[in-house]
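Incident log, entry 3
Record: tRNA-uridine aminocarboxypropyltransferase (226 residues)
Problem: checksum mismatch between cached and fresh output.
Input:
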Amino acid sequence: CSRPQKVCLCPFLPIHPLKVSTCLYIIQHPAEESRVLRTVPLLAACLPPDKCKILVGRRFSEDRYPELATVCRSPSTLILYPGAEATNLEEVAEMPASPSVMIIIDGTWSQAKDIFYKNSLFRLPKQVQIKTNISSQYVIRTQPTNTCLSTLECAAVALTIMEKNKSIQETILRPLQALCAFQLQHGAQIHHSKEHLLKTGLYDKPMPKNKRKLRRMELLVNNVKI
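Fresh output:
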């Protein structure tokens, strides 16, 4: 797990990397690389090295990343990014020829949006989303809504669907659950989603002056999908 001995999570990782046919490309925003409690290293520790490739950056051109460009142009590649144009992953996984590569963007919602829309390569693969009502177990970091998932959780759910194996999700989530439990035992607080705080009147930060951001908060309170 590459963590200090006192906070080692190796006992919660699978003894052997999970056997999966799907290859993940994690496109990581540089700001995530320095976060102490990031989840991508735990995800990588659960999978074979050739099935979890991490690329760090904001801009990905075809000249600088020829391998990634080839992957993006392949009909067997998906990109996990929710939106009006995205197809539910469950529907895609039922097709006779299942896709073998999935791209996942790792960053805050605004960082992921910036990477997706400012890199034309990422609009070449088929866009998919996960249709799930499960709540995030990454309770030591604030999420926009209760159903917003961390990169590790997204990968766990996606791989479970793609590989048609429910045990994958349980195995990948185990180190995340241990990480959160350890942090809570040592003084960390449970972070409720922004949606929860707004609805319960517990949101204690100044409301944004930007009309677009203020409108997004109003949508969260009124249960409108954004």
